[in-house]
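Run log, item B.
One chain of 205 residues. Sequence copied directly from the ordering sheet:
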Amino acid sequence: MSTYDRRRLVELKRAFDEARFGADRTLNLRATLPTADEAARRASAWLRERQTSGADEVLIITGRGNGSPGGFSVVREAVAKTLRQLKRAGVVDAIVEHSPGSFVATLAPVRRLWEGARRTAPPRSDIPGGATVGGLDSETATLLRTLAERSLDALGVAASESFVQREMATQFAALIRGVPAGADREARLRDVIRRALAADDTRTR
C-alpha cells in the first residue's frame, strides 16, 4: 500500500469515528500531550461525567507512542489502567482496543455505581468539594430518597430510616463524583437522579 493510500485510509477511519462518536463522546488526549498522571486524571473525570450524562459508548484517543522513548506510550498504559479501575468501580462496562492508539469504552448504567459503592464506599474526603447529603436542597434530597428507597426495595431490604439514610449517602457519594463543580452542580445532580429513576422505571416494566 502506498503512502497516499495509507493516509487516505487513516483519514477515512477518522471520519467514521467522528460520525460515530462526535465531539461529545470523544476524549482526545493525544492532542494535548499530557503526562501519564494527567491523562489518567482527565480520563477518570471525563468518563465519570459522561456516564452520569447518559452517554453509552465513548472514544478515548491516547496515541500509540511513536514519538515516545522506545515507542512505548505511557499515556496509553495509564489510560488502560484507569479503564480497568473504572470497570471495577462500576463506571465502565466494557473496554475494547479500537486501534493501537485508542480505546472504545462502553459505560455502565448509573445504578452500577452504588452497587459497587456498597462494598467499597469512598471516604468522606473523597467526595469532591466536601459536598454532603445534608447540604442538598429539599427537591434534590427528595429525589435521592426516592432512588434510595427503590434501590433498597429491589434488594428486598426493609426501608427503615437508618437504611434509607445510609443508602442515600452511598448513592450521593457515587453520583456526585461524576457531576462537575459549578453553580449548576446541584441542578445537574437532579438531572442524573431523574435519569436513574427513569432507567429504573424502564428496567422494571
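Observations after the first pass:
- The longest strand covers residues 92-99.
- The chain has two domains: 3-107, 111-204.
Flagged for discussion on Thursday.
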